[in-house]
Amino acid sequence: MALAAPVMRMASSSAFLPKILPTTLFSTSRIQIYAQQFSLPLLPSLTLAVPVGFQLGLPSLPSILEGIWESILKAVPKKKTSHMKKRHRQMAGKALKDVTSLCKCPACGEIKRMHYLCPHCAATHPAEIFSLAPTPTSLLSASGSSALRVHSTTDPSFPLQQTIPNAHKLGCHHICTARGGLGNVAASVGFGGEIKIWRLGPSSSDEKRNEWQLEWELPPSKTNGGDVWAVALSADEEYLACTTSDGRIHVWEIGTREKIQTYETGARGGGSFAMAVDLSRDGRLTASGHESGAVYVFNNDAGRMVYSLSGLAKPVRAVAFSPGCKRLAAAGNAGIIALYDMEHGEHVGNLTTPSGRPAWITSLDWNDAGEYLLSGSLDGKVKVWDVARGACVATHSETESALWSVRWLPKTERALGPGMAKSEMFCAAGASRSLTFYREATGS
């Protein structure tokens, strides 16, 4: 069988030169002459034998670059949206519809954000809560609104027992009860400067139910000086101490409704603003904290000042006697708690945490045993201090809003729940407009 020889095609070298050399080299006649001289004598006619049906499998340049570009894109990781950026989008209102959409609260019927707690239901008061006053069975709270509210502390849900409407038209900034007393008398001070004394008694509608009722009112005209600010009651609920903006401390007898003592801290009422006051449980001493950073202690029996305490150079916002009347705690804008000995009037120590800029301390309170000291500050932190060790043993920071008042709840025989009969409990309130209750964790 005869095999057909493959047909060979001849290609000259001149056919490859335009593909190898750029066309720009042939733009002028001079370059064309040199190219012709270079191609003719130096490069003789070169022929290549290419069989028919044979093609070079060389890929084109665009296809090569496209493959390289795809490999580069695959090697670079995809951009992922961080959790912080998602959170910022939510806060800016650019999140998913089911997060930012509004709905009606099934409890109160007010409009709220979906998937969020209703602020109207969680808020105890319509305004900031400035002061708390505990009794053996209830907790009184005062805020910037005109009403006072009473919550039961003998039920685990802490239900609302009573609302006293129009107690203070301009709002109330201080309320107090007798620590260690029966809890039948309370005193409150409004932003209008009036002092009101409340007493717990049988309700007019239901004799089996006790309610707080107004006993008597002390108008601002009877304070003889600056506006009234802080108040405190003695343990026997017989005496009331109040401070004024000109540095005076007045002591009233509740039974006779007469002023029995006035303490001066400056010449002719020119003293520093008295921002805090407290009465010892034995009724022997009265302490006041002032805007100048001074702390004064008065003897009620002698009617004179016994100690002028130093150690705090900034305004003092809270003073508190220990249950045994042996220690006095004072704190304020300095962010530290100063402890004083009431037997000799000496500064015995400070309670502080190693932080760069401590927050202002707005409230202090001792527990019934005098073992722990409770403090609340503007950064929203509640701290429990072990006085014997001089250290903070617990810190709670469930809110970033300012705390204006913190109080221990008196221990009662009735337990709120399993293992809570002997537990310490306290409450905190402030700019969040809600009451927060804490209890000591036990192993029982």
Topology:
Layout: E1 8-11, H1 17-20, H2 29-42, E2 48-51, H3 61-75, H4 83-91, H5 97-100, E3 102-104, E4 111-113, H6 119-122, E5 129-134, E6 138-143, E7 148-152, E8 160-164, E9 172-177, E10 185-190, E11 195-202, E12 210-218, E13 228-233, E14 239-244, E15 249-253, E16 258-263, E17 274-279, E18 285-290, E19 295-299, E20 304-309, E21 316-321, E22 327-332, E23 337-341, E24 346-351, E25 361-366, E26 372-377, E27 382-386, E28 391-396, E29 403-409, E30 425-430, E31 435-439
Antiparallel strand pairs: 1-2, 3-4, 5-6, 6-7, 7-8, 9-10, 10-11, 11-12, 13-14, 14-15, 15-16, 17-18, 18-19, 19-20, 21-22, 22-23, 23-24, 25-26, 26-27, 27-28, 29-30, 30-31
Task: Supply the key terms.
444 residues, mainly beta, Methylamine Dehydrogenase, Chain H, four-stranded antiparallel sheet, 31 strands, Meiotic recombination protein Ski8/Rec14
